Amino acid sequence: MRKLFALIAVLGMLTIGASKLMAQEEEATPAAAQTEQMTVSIDDEQIESTSMHAAIKQKFIEGGAGFMACVVLCLIFGLAIAIERVIYLNLADTNTKKFIAGFEDTLNNGGIEAAKDYCRNTRGPIASIFYQGLSRYEQGIEMVEKSVISYGSVQMGLMEKGLTWIGLFIALAPMLGFLGTVIGMIEAFDQIQAAGDMSPALVAGGIKVALITTVGGLIVAMILQVFYNYCTSKVEGIVNNMEDASVSMLDILVKYGQKNK
After folding, report:
1. What is the distance between the alpha carbons of residues 105 and 216, in angstroms, rounded to a whole number?
2. Which residues does 177 contact at the CB level (< 8 Å), separation at least 6?
3. For residue 74, with 0-12 CB atoms within 10 Å meaning exposed, 13-18 middle and 19 or more buried, which class applies?
4. HSE-CB for 261 with a 13 A CA cutoff
5. Which among 142, 127, 107 is positioned nearest to 241, based on CA atoms?
6. Which tens digits make up the pLDDT trace of 145-172?
7. What is the DSSP letter of 64?
8. Vertex 30, ends 27 and 36: CA angle to 5°?
9. How far apart are CA 150 and CA 142, in angstroms?
10. What is the dihedral of CA 15, 18, 19, 22, to 10 degrees?
């Protein structure tokens, strides 16, 4: 009997151990499958990115390295100027109402010199215009108004600096693309003339290569056009704020002059 009980106990322990081992294998199998699936997905992404890069490189070569390089240079230079303008204009855009309130408070409590320091320590074209106007305060309100108008034009020119170059690259990129297309079509007809036969494959290949430069030029122009429109709208908004702030400044100075007579 004791041997029988011992045999049953051993079989029970073996059964429990086998069940635990099977459970561990079942838990490990989904994890391994998931790991394998993640590895496959990562490999697919790498292959996709590599194939996309290879496709872009292939189209660049097919479009003609010379013309496509000129189109890419237009994109690089245009983006460089556009990004610089975006940063400059965003730094130039300030909270006009807050600045005017602080300016009026400083002027009434500290006088002209304190207001000059307040404008000098504030960034943006509006603060610069206010400072120039305060510099002519002793010459009268009319001189202040003329100074504000003149310096406002200077600030507007500084904000619009570089936009003409962006406009140039917007116009130049499609022109280079069209020029590459025309030259590619001429080369395709030269190949037809040399072959003495108008093969559809020969014509289609030449036309495809020629049109790649046009597509590249149009894409570059569309990208730069977005930045150009953003910059021009930003300039218009800042100029409107400058004009409103200049009127408010003259009113504040008139009140200040009447108060201190």
Report:
1. 55
2. 67, 71, 213, 214, 215, 216, 217, 218
3. buried
4. 6
5. 127
6. 888 888 888 888 889 888 999 999 999 9
7. -
8. 140
9. 12
10. -160
